[in-house]
Structures are given as structure tokens and as C-alpha cells.
Amino acid sequence: MTSFQRFIFLIAGPLGNILVAGVLFFIFVKKPTSPLSISFWDYTLYSILLLNFLTGLFNLIPGDESDGSRALEVITGKYAKRVALKNKS
Fold first, then answer.
1. Which domain holds residue 15?
2. C-alpha angle 30-45-9 in degrees, rounded to nearest 5
3. What is the C-alpha separation between 68 and 16, in angstroms, rounded?
4. 42, 34 in Cβ contact below 8 A?
5. What is the dihedral of CA 13, 27, 46, 15, to 10 degrees?
6. Tens digits of residue pLDDT in 35-81
7. 3-state secondary structure at position 81
8. Which of 30, 34, 43, 67 is the most interior residue, by most CB within 10 Å?
9. Among candidates 68, 50, 48, 51, which has minimal Cα distance to 59?
10. Neighbours of 54 (CB within 10 A)
11. Is 42 helix (H, G, I), strand (E, B) or coil?
12. What is the pTM of this model?
């Protein structure tokens, strides 16, 4: 697997969450509603939107074993060096 393919694979999950949040945001903004009459479904839609967006952002944080840290390794080239060292021995 090339570095670009690995990067796309790692970033697909967080970007999927952010994409779903974007679609829900578009639906939420285009829905005609009064600010005083927020229904259960509006609240549910907004909650799902917020949770998807925050999950996507959280997965991009470069922590120990998160998608963000592994994607950052691919960008900086550390992944390629680590694979080369494993294959050498």
C-alpha cells in the first residue's frame, strides 16, 4: 500500500463523520422552522449533527493510536521509515 493510499484509508473515517455532519447541517439550515418552535426531530437532527462533527474532529487529533496520529505519520514520512526498518531486519 502506498503512502497516499494509506493516508486516504486513515482519513476516510473522520472525513465520513464530517461529511455526514455537513449534510445534516445543510438539511437543518434549509428546514423552515421558527426559533421558538423547535421540535423533537429538530433537536435529534442537531444532536446527531453535533456528535458526528465532534467525533470526526476527535479522530483527527494526533494521539497515540488515533487516525490523526497515523495520518500525520504518513504525511511526515515516519511510517515509511518504520516500515523500511522492519523490512530491513
1. 3-88
2. 95
3. 14
4. no
5. 10
6. 667 788 888 888 999 999 999 888 888 777 777 878 888 788 775 56
7. helix
8. 67
9. 68
10. 13
11. helix
12. 0.70
pLDDT, position 41: 82
DSSP 40-54: HHHHHHHHHHHHHHH
Cell of 6: 494509506
Contact between 7 and 74 (Cβ < 8 Å)? yes
The answer to whether 5 and 44 have CB atoms below 8 angstroms apart is: no
List CB contacts of 24: < 8 A, sequence separation 6 or more.
45, 48, 49, 52
Amino acid identity of 16? G
**What's the total number of domains in the chain?**
1
CA distance 55 to 48: 10
Retrieve residue 30's grid coordinates.
434549509
